[in-house]
Design a protein that fits this description.
Helix content: over 70%
CATH topology: 3 helical TM bundles of succinate and fumarate reductases
CATH architecture: Up-down Bundle
Distance between the termini: 69 Å
CATH class: Mainly Alpha
CATH superfamily: Fumarate reductase/succinate dehydrogenase, transmembrane subunit
Number of helices: 8
Bound molecules: protoporphyrin IX containing FE
Order of helices and strands: HHHHHHHH
Number of strands: 0
Shape: globular
Number of domains: 1
């Protein structure tokens, strides 16, 4: 049997912990933030005034920038940087993948790249460049009112939703919550149903914003 030295052993240990931190951050706080973010923006379904007062409320929380950087930006940055390293390490040849699980593995990585582009675009145009509540609403509405803008926004949001829901499944497997082939297959159906429900939910939010007279 091949012996490994102490340095290789330490390396394997630190890899294990970094992978676990990466995995945990995908749910706490990033996944939780994603769900709250969608929930708050569901106010757009009610109408312009409801959505505007929710955005006003979010923007007027004292020291919100500290929470945004500490609880959202730094965890996403860590997850994304290590995530890119994992994408780089992956052997991505889809034609070699004939099994459902392998396709999900490839899709998790493809959606990671789309999510990165989407999040960077979203933060620049809706958070950094938009200074008032009206700027935020107009930035979103104007993009969604063009067919190309709507399709690109939908691809970004749906890729993020898939990455999160499929990630929830792999998270539960990684942390040893789901044991056995049957339980994992059932959980996979549940997370894909959740993915479908969240895709429909986000489609309604985006369509409602696109119809706003702003
Ligand atoms: C809204 C943003 C994001 C959320 C909610 C999220 C969530 C998750 C979750 C829950 C997992 C599963 C962890 C596990 O299997 O234990 C995961 C995995 C992964 N994420 Fe993200 N993520 C986000 C953004 C990103 C970004 C921007 C990247 C950039 C590369 C990325 C790259 C990855 C990769 C490569 C994996 C697979 C890890 C593996 O198979 O071991 N994620 N993500």
């Amino acid at each position: 049997m091949k012996k490994i030295n102490r340095q290789q052993q330490n390396h394997a240990h630190s890899d294990f912990y970094i992978r676990r931190i990466h995995s945990l951050l995908g749910i706490v706080p990033i996944g939780i933030f994603l769900c709250f973010h969608l929930l708050l923006n569901s106010s757009a379904i009610i109408g312009v005034e409801a959505w505007s007062s929710v955005i006003d409320g979010m923007r007027s929380i004292p020291f919100i920038i500290v929470a945004e950087i500490g609880v959202i930006a730094i965890p996403i940055l860590f997850h994304a940087v290590y995530g890119f390293y994992l994408v780089y390490l992956s052997d991505l040849h889809p034609l070699r993948y004939q099994y459902y699980k392998n396709w999900m593995f490839v899709l998790q990585r493809i959606t990671a790249i789309i999510t990165t582009l989407f999040v960077v675009d979203h933060v620049i145009f809706v958070r950094i460049m938009a200074h008032t509540t009206m700027d935020v609403m107009q930035a979103m509405a104007h993009v969604l009112q063009t067919p190309l803008g709507f399709v690109l926004e939908l691809i970004g949001v749906w890729a993020t939703v898939f990455h999160f829901t499929n990630g929830l499944l792999t998270f539960l497997i990684t942390w040893g919550v789901l044991h056995g082939e049957r339980v994992q297959r059932l959980a996979s159906i549940c997370t894909m149903l959740l993915c479908g429900a969240m895709c429909l939910w986000t489609l309604i939010i985006l369509a409602r914003i696109a119809m706003m007279p702003i």
